Structure prediction request, 510 residues.
Amino acid sequence: MNKQPKYRQVADALRREIDNGTYPPGSRLPSEAELSTRFDASRNTVRAGLNLLVTQGLVASSQGLGYQVTKHEVFKLNASRFENLTFPQNGDAYSTDVTAAGRRPSQTFRVELQPAPKHVAERLEVAADSTTVLRFCHRFVDDVPWSTQATHYPEWLVAKAPRLTEPGDIAEGTTRYLADLGVTQVGYFDEITTRMPTPEEARLLEVGAGVPVLLWTRTGYSDERPIRCTVTTFRGDLNQMNYEIGDLSAREVSE
Amino acid sequence: MNKQPKYRQVADALRREIDNGTYPPGSRLPSEAELSTRFDASRNTVRAGLNLLVTQGLVASSQGLGYQVTKHEVFKLNASRFENLTFPQNGDAYSTDVTAAGRRPSQTFRVELQPAPKHVAERLEVAADSTTVLRFCHRFVDDVPWSTQATHYPEWLVAKAPRLTEPGDIAEGTTRYLADLGVTQVGYFDEITTRMPTPEEARLLEVGAGVPVLLWTRTGYSDERPIRCTVTTFRGDLNQMNYEIGDLSAREVSE
DNA sequence: TAGTGGTCTAGACCACCTC
DNA sequence: AGGTGGTCTAGACCACTAC
Prediction:
């Protein structure tokens, strides 16, 4: 018989009760002291069990308040439509989608000149230390941190499109602005990965332990070369990415 | 001044040393006892710090061996080509890609009849309790668990395509087989999310704490209706998904 | 057998939230 | 003030790996 350690028994028992609805999303778990009595374990052992659930993203704890079962409402992003090739737009698609979902979007924005980080330089096909324009966006939905988005433009493009260095939004959208200058995005290459957040990411996105981030790197191409590289970091518990490929005329649009 | 708790100082110090190459991927960290001396902290405090790094996926521990810095080689899956509409193929694309990378693929496979789980029923647009054929695949690369893949086919399709219930592989590929019967997949809808693994997923994929899973749900459509729903569960530390959209003729294929 | 991490306890004190 | 979780300690014993 595989005897589980006590703290795992605690975690498993609580997980079952969360799954079967004893503790529904948003409700509070019993206090450590109560659980300690119930499982005949020391407070530290109960804490070890609870910590497992926290790192698995099932519950979150806060000092003075207790442990609360997490609840998510995921936001669905259609990445194959997000910046439609025929209707190029900037971050506007984000505001539009969020508003359409009845939520309130907000963001902070800044522009910097930066030497290209290695992975960006590779994707933009420029030298690793060459200058790029970084347009950085920190996005919130109903004041909850949602994602960060960092778009790098190569130096040669800035010469053609000086407004890229303007500190504010470009009203008509950067994609539109660039297209008007003869630099049209005709394709994208998307890379999607996941991992646990770095301390910096955890701070910006205000994620606790147990919530991974979804990393989305989009490299945009003209018919000649890469013209931008956008790295978006999503809270993994609040976001889903969708792609449409081929003919989907048979699809019910129920969502 | 924001004084960090001691176990965070331990974690931060070790993280810096991992980042700057003091402890390169694959190397071992000092023992808990040594770290305890170095940081003038109790063994439990050091363990709390190390546990942070473990849940962040930076290091892995094993009894009797110590803590080892994790190393990853990510496998890149081109999801927009994986089952090319013009060259339909089954799991073969997986073996082909893996072999091309100089790795050795293997898999276990089984077929079951199952009532449609809720999320599958929605996507296949069938009743929630209707029967589906489940073709399930557990994939390994060089004997490391890589992903699980569960494809559900609706009951009405099985009537047309009885070989779907055959327990073995379909030699020419299921997509090909279905196309020959007049059921052609003309489009896909892909959904990508991430979260921490359930205990069951952790067991199948042999992931330790701190490694999220990447969930990929692909619903395939004929020109009339959905014909299959495939849910793939990847180890997030070993996999990346790529999509190509639009015209990428300018892209250097360096990988 | 020696050294490593894994489990567990009992108790102390602190920080935060609610009343 | 009282209850909650957060931090930290000191020590015990167990399980696994290497030699």
